[in-house]
Amino acid sequence: MIGIFGGTFDPIHFGHLRPALELFEILQLDELRLIPAGVPPHRRAPCASTGQRLLMLRKAIAGQPGFVLDERETERSGPSYMVDTLSELRAELGDRRSICLLLGMDAFLGLNSWHRWREIPRLAHLVVSHRPGWLPEHLDDHGGPLAELADSSLVADPLELGRKPAGLFFMHPVTQLDISSTRIRALIREGRNPRYLLPDEIWMYIQEQQLYR
Ligand code: ATP
Questions:
Q1: Which atom, in ligand 1's list, is nearest to the CA of 10?
Q2: Which of 124, 132, 143, 174 could form a disulfide with 99 if both were Cys (CB 3.0 to 4.6 A apart)?
Q3: Does residue 80 have its Cβ closer than 6 Å to ligand 1?
Q4: What predicted TM-score, i.e. pTM, was given to this entire model?
Q5: Cβ(48)–Cβ(212) under 8 Å?
Q6: CB count, 10 Å around CB of 197?
Q7: Which mutation among 4, 5, 8 tests ligand 1's pocket best, with the greatest number of atoms within 8 A of CB?
Q8: Residue 10 pLDDT > 90, yes or no?
Q9: Ligand 1 in contact with 104 (CB < 6 A)?
Q10: 19 lines ligand 1 (CB under 6 A)
Q11: What is the pLDDT of residues 33-80, one digit of tens each?
């Protein structure tokens, strides 16, 4: 079973890394691929360059067995659509292998605005982790197609995800860390210290490169 964790990672922080590791263990993944968006379709262009974001990711996962950096979205031109990424991975990995798309609750609640989003559950399982400020109850308030999708495919045992290649929904309350890249960038811009919100090595690199000032 393989996990896919996409994002802008501008910069990567402990709110990405800790939940990713917890899900890696709980789902008993063979591999967790971090896939930084080249051109994120739903937001402003990242502040750090692609090369800088890739380097920060490489530093952050160095020495963590099973964590792999997948650069495909930064190598493609045009917007980085998850449906294209998953279609490529499905073609590479075959029809039988389970693929789990890991999303924070905030990302999941926006899923129905993603390009060709209805194809996504046919390509992968959805594994949604809680994120501070985004309660699972928001899903019911949201109603509509996402709540329906979650209700109709929900499984309680993560190991069930290994029995089918795609199409199931699993939710998990990972350790709640109220950290965002936006907040880290704002702290740096204000001349404050973001230490202990992200790995020291990344903070050192940000200072060296004079990023986010
Ligand atoms: P920004 O503040 O720039 O929007 P971000 O901190 O939200 O960035 P992204 O790179 O956009 O980070 O997020 C990638 C993925 O990581 C998304 O699925 C998001 O839900 C998840 N994520 C980010 N931060 C956290 C966190 N603190 N706890 C749980 N999930 C998180």
A1: 3
A2: 124
A3: no
A4: 0.95
A5: yes
A6: 20
A7: 8
A8: yes
A9: yes
A10: yes
A11: 999 999 888 888 999 999 999 999 999 999 999 999 999 999 999 999
